[in-house]
Amino acid sequence: MENSSPIILAIDQGSGSTKALAINLKGEVLAQAEIKINTTFPQSGWVEQDPEEIWRSVVEASIQITKAHKISAVGLSIQRESVLFWEHTTGKALTNVITWQDRRASDLAEESAKNAARVKEITGLELDPMFSALKAQWLLENQNFTGDICIGTIDSWIAFKLGAGHIIESGSASRTQLLDIKTGQWSQELLDLFKVDLKTLPRVCSSDEKHICTNMQELGLTNAVPLSGIMGDSHAALFAHKGWISGNFKATFGTGTSLMGLTETKPQTIAWSLGEKITRAAEANILSTGSTLVWLAQLLDTTPEDLANLAPESTEQVEIVPAFNGLGAPWWDREATAIIAGLTRGSSRADLAAAALRSTAAQINDVLEDFAKSGIKIDSLYADGGGARNQYLMQMLADLSGKKIKSSQLLELSAFGAAMVAAIGAGLATISDIERNEMKYDEFTPHLSDEEREKALKTWRKAVQQSRMKG
C-alpha cells in the first residue's frame, strides 16, 4: 500500500466520550479528536445519556478530522447493549439512552427468570438487565409511546441521523437479547416474551455493508463517502487483534471489561458478519473494572491516574469486590453486594488502589477459569483499552492468571478495527491486506509460582464468596 493510502474516518462512540480518528490502511493514526459526554444517574441503578448530546459529539469530533483530511469511507465503533426510542418521521428522541450499566429492569429479570434457560438457548446470553431487551420492555411498560416509533441501539441512532435508515449491525443486534444467534435474525419468540413489536426494530445488516447515506454533510463529507463498517467496540477490538486467527482471545479494558474470542462451541455473541457470513464468539462481560478505580478516586478525593501510580507502593493485600450492581461474568449474580475485605489499621491508600486494580485482574482470571471448564484453552491473552496501558495491572494479570499477556501499543484499537472493516466494506482493502499490518505489543509473563498464585487468589475467592452471601 502506498503513502497515498486512503484515509478512513473512524468514529468510536464510547461510554465516556466520542473519538474521531483519521486512520490509513497501514494502520497509522494520522489525527484524533475527542469530545467528552455526560452520564446521569436519575435514580439508584439508573444510568442514562442524552442521545442528542451523543449525536453532537459525533458531529463535532468528526468535523475536526474531516476539515484536515480527505476521507474515503467511515467506520463506526459503538458502546453496546444500550437502548433508546425515537420518532421515525422526525428523528426526535423520545427517551434518553439507557446504557449498558443501567439496572432498572432487575425486577423484570426476576419475573422472567423461568424463561432464562430458553433465552440463553436462543441468544447465547444470560438473562440480565445489562442487555437491551429488558430495558426496552421496561420503557414500553412505563412510558406511553404513540405513532411510528423506532427502537434501537447507539449504532442505530447514529446511522439514522446520518441518513442510512433504521439499521443495526449484526454483532450489536446479538447484544440486544432479541436476536437468534443461529439465524442472525430477530426471534419472534423473544419479541413476544419481551413484548417488543417487530416493526419498531431496525433491519439487521452485515458489519461491512456499504451504506450510502443522505446526511453525510453533517460530518463535513459528501454523500458519496460511504458508511461501510459498523461494529460494537469489543468486536472491533477483536477484529483489530486479527481475531479471525485461531486462538486469539482478547480483553478490552474500559468502564467494564469484555473478553472475547471466536468459537462455534456454545457462542454467546456474533463477533461480526462479513459479506453476510456470520462469525460467532465466546464472550464474557465484567461489569466493573475501570469504573472501580474511578469510584475509589472519587471517594478519596483524588484522580484515577494518581491512584494507579500509587498502587505499586502497596504493602498489604486488601480485596475490593466491585459488585456495585451485582456481579457479571462468570457469576451473573444480581444479588451480590460490593465489599472491602482485609482492612487493618495499617491499610493505606496504596493498598486500596492496588485492591481496585487487583479486582480487575482477579475477575478476568475468574472468567478464564470458567472458559477452561468449557474447553476453551487460552495460552496468551491480548489486551487493549485504557487499562492495558497500566504495566502494574498487566503484570498483576499475568501473575494471577498464569497467562502471557500481550498489551497493544495502539490504544485506540476499537476505532482501528472499525476503520479496517470500513475499508473492506468500501472495497479499499481485503482481509489479506489487513493481516499484513504489523501490530506491536508489550508482553508480560507470570512471575509467580503456582503455589504463590494460589495463595494470592485465596483471599480474593473468599471475598467473592462473602459478596455473594444471601441475607
Automatic annotation (TrEMBL):
InterPro entries reported in the protein's UniProt record? ATPase_NBD (IPR043129), Carb_kinase_FGGY (IPR000577), FGGY_C (IPR018485), FGGY_N (IPR018484)
SUPFAM superfamilies on file:
Actin-like ATPase domain
Q: Please give the Gene3D superfamilies that the UniProt record associates with this protein.
A: 3.30.420.40
- UniProt GO MF annotations: ATP binding; glycerol kinase activity
Positions of the Carbohydrate kinase FGGY C-terminal domain = 251-425
Q: Keyword set for this entry? A: ATP-binding, Kinase, Nucleotide-binding, Transferase
A single cellular component GO annotation: cytosol
Write down a Pfam family by its short name. FGGY_C
The Carbohydrate kinase FGGY N-terminal domain covers which part of the protein?
A: 7-239
The record's Gene Ontology biological-process terms are:
glycerol metabolic process
Q: Which family does it belong to?
A: Belongs to the FGGY kinase family.
Protein name listed in UniProt: Unannotated protein
